[in-house]
């Protein structure tokens, strides 16, 4: 039925029980949202948007408006300012991680200083490890040249490959049963004095970690091959033979990529470099056949 009142007609329906019900308003000041965006849901605030474009809350707070979260039960409200900071930091870290996957870590913005853990090696340690190698392992593994090693040490601050080579060499030497570091080797370092074997294991993990930040597979060098061989030797001494075999195969694969099995690749290098590469190739060949 219609009941006319001033200023205009209003339609009122009468239910079967005789009660009058008023119609719902056809318009609202803020449109209802079926599902809140991730940020508004996390902040426990009303989402103002249509679900197809950034909502007003995310726009004003500088957040990315997404609808990825699975709806959960409401929890206790916390500090909204803190939640916004957490969301911003999470999104910032995600964006940095995505960019980092496409960066060239050999660029000046990503030197070893950005990746390495400071305070692990001293000059005395590196000297002791180099001396130990040439005194004990060089006769059976003649793959390094003392002068060249000194040059590599000088490039540790600017080259990830040089850093990993020296750290893996020191790890390999410190894991040797008879290796003893001089008393002054820990002077000025951030780590306390510890047995050589324990420090060698720490350096091994450091070299492996830093090396992940460098694409040594696409453009391998002689340093890459030697580093993988030192990883093999370290894990062999630790009786972790599956891991040792993996790194030995990695070293031989890198050598294959470099064409070290082809005679022509030795003609462009100088006498010392050519001799060192030949020794490395045959060491890998013999070791792999003996280890298989």
Low-confidence stretches at least 5 residues in length (pLDDT < 50)?
Answer: 1-28, 100-109
Q: Characterize the overall form.
A: elongated
Radius of gyration using CA atoms only? 33 Å
Count of helical regions: 11
Quantity of strands, as a count: 4
Please give the largest β-sheet: 2 strands, antiparallel
Q: How far apart, in Å, are the first and last alpha carbons?
A: 96 Å
Binned, the helix content reads 40-55%
SSE topology string: EEEEHHHHHHHHHHH
Q: What portion of residues belong to β-strands?
A: under 5%
Kindly state the mean pLDDT as a whole number?
79
Structural class: mainly alpha
- Record the strand order, biggest sheet: 1-2
Pfam families: Fungal_trans, Zn_clus
Protein name: Zn(2)-C6 fungal-type domain-containing protein
Keywords: Metal-binding, Nucleus
GO molecular function: DNA binding; DNA-binding transcription factor activity, RNA polymerase II-specific; zinc ion binding
């Amino acid at each position: 039925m219609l009941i006319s009142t001033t200023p205009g007609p209003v339609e009122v329906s009468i239910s079967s029980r005789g009660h009058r019900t008023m119609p719902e308003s056809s318009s609202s000041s803020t449109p209802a949202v079926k599902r809140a965006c991730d940020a508004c849901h996390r902040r426990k605030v009303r989402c103002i948007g249509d679900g197809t474009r950034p909502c007003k809350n995310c726009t004003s707070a500088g957040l990315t408006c997404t609808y990825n979260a699975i709806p959960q039960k409401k929890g206790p409200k916390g500090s909204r300012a803190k939640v916004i900071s957490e969301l911003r930091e999470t999104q910032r870290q995600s964006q940095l991680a995505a960019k980092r996957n496409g960066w060239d870590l050999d660029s000046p913005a990503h030197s070893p200083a950005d990746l390495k853990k400071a305070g692990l090696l001293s000059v005395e340690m590196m000297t002791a490890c180099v001396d130990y190698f040439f005194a004990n392992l060089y006769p059976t593994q003649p793959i390094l040249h003392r002068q060249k090693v000194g040059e590599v040490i000088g490039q540790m601050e600017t080259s990830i490959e040089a850093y990993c080579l020296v750290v893996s060499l020191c790890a390999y030497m410190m894991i040797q049963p008879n290796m003893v570091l001089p008393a002054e080797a820990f002077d000025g370092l951030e780590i306390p004095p510890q047995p050589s074997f324990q420090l060698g294991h720490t350096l091994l993990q450091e070299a492996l970690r830093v090396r992940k930040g460098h694409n040594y597979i696409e453009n391998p060098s002689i340093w890459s091959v030697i580093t993988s061989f030192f990883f093999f030797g370290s894990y062999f001494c630790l009786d972790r033979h599956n891991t040792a075999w993996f790194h030995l195969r990695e070293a031989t694969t890198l050598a294959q990529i470099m064409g070290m099995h082809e005679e022509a690749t030795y003609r462009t290098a100088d006498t010392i470099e050519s001799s060192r590469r030949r020794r490395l190739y045959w060491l890998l060949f013999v070791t792999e056949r003996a280890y298989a």
